[in-house]
Amino acid sequence: MKPPLRAFLIILLTSLILLFFSIFIEPLNLFFFKENSFRLCFSDIPALLGFKPSAEYSEKHDTTGSLSEDSLIKILSGTYKHAWPDDSVKIHALVLSYVKNNLSEDTLQNIQKIEAFVNNNIKSDSSVAAKFIKNLLLSYFNASDDKAILNPLIGSSRPLDAFFYALLKEADTSLIRVAHYGDSQLEGGRLSVNIRKKFQQKFGGNGVGFVPFIETVSNVALSHFDMDGWQRYTVFHDRYCNSFYGASGNVYRWSPCAKNNGDSLSSDTLKEEKYALGLNFSPWAKWEKVSLMYGRSMGDCYVSVFDEKNNLVTSDTLYPAPSFALQDIDIPATVKKMRFEFSSNVVFDFYGFLFDGKKGVQVDNYGIRGHSGDGLLHISRKYFAEQLQQLKTKLIILQFGANAVPYVNNENECKEIEENFFRILQRCKEVAPDASILLIGTGDMATRLKGEWQSFPILPKFREAQKNAAIRAGCAYWNLGTVMGGENAILEWTKQKFASNDGHFTPNGQEEVATRLFDALMLEYEKYCNEKNSARK
Fold first, then answer.
1. What's the pLDDT score for residue 469?
2. pTM of the model
């Protein structure tokens, strides 16, 4: 038999066998790992015969070489259809090939075995691609991954959909804000700066976001000077005389608030004087727009800005504001060291500055030392909502709990913790109905038990209370304790100089946590994009 005829008959026979399989074997598209190799198998005819790069994919990528992790994610999330090269593809430690499924029926019917199989066979935990595939695997079998974000389907949407929609549709043309609330873990801009950097690298944007008038600890992006004479009030300590705080939970004044003036506007008068405030930014800091946040004042205030050589940079007037107000101030990013002078005979309520880009993503750091989150309940609902709406905040991240853990000793007290977090989450949903809300479960932290450092025994139940609160409130949840490694993980993090025993992260630890949080968010974002793409087909 001649070679061409032999080849034709082989192809024909193979096609008949595949046709036979397609009739008697249930179609299956299954992702799985084996010995560091990622394999994909399918037993339906369209999938098998569609094993080639699509035209759309070929125009943008070289399908003969290795693929980037980003490309793999796009392929798996459905952005490209049948975009596979003819041969296997190696991506770091992952190899894509096509083989017969070797998972037994018993294994398929046992979720615990599935979870064990996934966890034991994915060795490239540091790979974004591996994490994505792992998440895909577990979701395929409706299994759970405690390191992923809990973002359940509620009706026809998920808790993070509002934020993801903004990323997908608005980040290219407008500024999307993320409000990151927390305690001393965030104080001075810590942790938020790492999350901000990752968002801005992927979605655009610049600037450091919210800058307080007074900073009690060193800030990672700037330093303050000439702060004498200013009064600071917070929702946690040194509380204000009414509930009209800024969205950060702070109010700054140059005259003490001596009495509770209820809902009345600030009309305290005094002899006109000048009050100064200085900011000195790091050389890498950039911005395109500067805004001053203030409100509830009945007079004018004159603002002048000087550079480090005392040259006038700009001047402006703040006009009476019955409610929350944002005033743009023209300060070029070339001026890194600046001094503000405020002049008025009426006391103003100030809430801070915004140093932003004009589009992309901005992450505002709202950390207050000692805060457990319930201080947000002291902010006027209406005033809080007005600020978040004007600021266009699309994601609220709540990272609290470490200050409460040492004082919680039993399940009844954990139930109280659950109710407290539920109230906080409910309030956030009330004041920001168009935003997504993510609660971060408390990270691991240690105490001395019998002379040795060990995780607080109550932590698993404490985090379970946080998770229950998030589920009840319809919010997303991320278990930082599990991500760190579970019980006594803090000992290893301390050994690696990622944290101290009390759970506070070092700069390296902050970078690690930010990376894991951002990766988890992006996995959910890719899933969201995939679902939207599927719905349009």
1. 96
2. 0.74
